[in-house]
Amino acid sequence: MNLGFTTARGWSGHRAGWAHTRSAATAAQGDNGGVRDDAPVRRYDVVVIGSGFGGSVAALRAAEKGYSVAVLEAGRRFADHELPQTSWRVRRFLWAPALGCLGIQRLTLLRGRRGAGMLVLSGAGVGGGSLVYANTLYRPPPEFFSDPQWRDITDWQAELAPWYDLAGRMLGVTTYPDDTPADVAMRAVAERMGAGGTYRPTPVGVYFGEPGRTVPDPYFGGAGPDRAGCLHCGACMTGCRHNAKNSLPKNYLWLAERAGAAVVPRTTVTAVRPAAGGGYQVTAVATGPGPRRRRVYHAGQVVFAAGALGTQRLLHAMRARGDLPRLSDRIGHLTRSNSEAILGASVPARAAKRRGLAFHQGVAITGSFHPDARTHIEPVRYGEGANALGLLQSALVAGGPARPLRWLGALLRAPHLIVHRTWVRRWSQRTVIALVMQSLDNSVTVRWRRAWYGRRRLLAEPGTGEPNPTWIPAGHRAARLLAEQIGGYPGGAITEAFNVPLTAHILGGAVIGADPSRGVVDAYHRVFGHPGLHVLDGAAVCANLGVNPALTITALAERAMALWPCRGEPDPRPPLGEPYRRVEPVPPAHPAVPAGAL
Question: Which of 153-167, 411-425, 443-457 has the highest mean pLDDT?
Fold first, then answer.
């Protein structure tokens, strides 16, 4: 069976195009009604599922190496002016495709047993999480590279160093240059916690330049788009409408499309299975309400990059159906929340207006500090008018027994704060969000279970290491001190009162391991048991980072794609299943960026 890779004679592939094959249509039968026998099959060398950080890297680097590439993205494509002006523009901000909402912000409740559940924020649209993320690009601490899950494979810190450098250049990492009202408040909190010396401005992926002024491509030697200087309006996480945020449509995806990659929006993948004669059949449907016409793709190589939850959901389903029977039973293990909590403090609306507060000024995240060696806290903001997510805020209640009752008691003891918390007018201007992350070893295991109503869904259970934290004491202390500092009241996500933490950075579930008994993919990101499948998103990350993960996901994907051969050339990596050995990167045949531009 020829799946594309060869170790001696080269890597074969398909030209992009259309074909009508009875075998392809028949292979797709069984997906809720099947596919017509005459369904057209689109053929590519590489199909990438998802257009976030890992998927965009895969698209560009595969195209540079001569492969025909299709990127299948469930969300829609946004021009800058089409991004939501505020979070109240629900159809463009929130993701609920059954209701016709194809926005950039997903909110997914991962149900769990015994405190393992979490509410997950993630991105949607062409550009994936980069559309809604806080453009924060930290490198992780040393303990990430020495996590027991993968430390014996190679020296990850040394091996990944050049790819962090490259990812940083591609994403335009720079240090935030200003000091904002939120930084002043959070720096004072750090001082009170004895950690003032750790406060630092954030490395971010934003073009600053002269505010509002458009200039020719400042990053890629003229190969990239024109850009405009940041307005410091704080609206990064509702999608930057001002062409300043270095989201993926401004770099990796822009270059990938110009190198020949085809990006197919509003396309939800429902199945990936081996095809007769080699390669894989990828079945997809149109996203959203209305007719769900099926599309069938064939590729020798399939890259899963649908985000940690999306990739897990597909792999779990394919294993359960018997389509990918040799998938490791470690699927779902070591799913991480980045040991995260999203807390904050708000000033009552009248007092905030009287004082002229403007905590929304800046970019989404402008600084951070470490109250202890394993905990990291950042002040976060939304832009003016982006107040909808303030409805998730409620009373801050410490963990422990009878937490829901204590939460109810806290509301009853201060009923006036109920009004303040539910009145979200000017919320973004009078609120400092505290994003708390830790590099501790805790996880959940995600299973594929049948719900009471018959459909299968993801369900989390306690996993390896310590239990997933339902509250973080250092974060709670910081939130209470922050409230004192700004003259407001502390808050946490309403789900926290019921031991369901909120995370914006779910990771793991299809992690790197030395063999199938330890992980789902090998150190080259190839799926054990199924040659030609790869995982290049946050699902492959095996440990909590304690920092925002976008740069790490990008660096891991850069390294993995650098080791792919050019089309038709020998594969330098050992065959799937053999022990890891370090190999030299393979230069692209057709670089998208002029030499020396980076």
Answer: 153-167
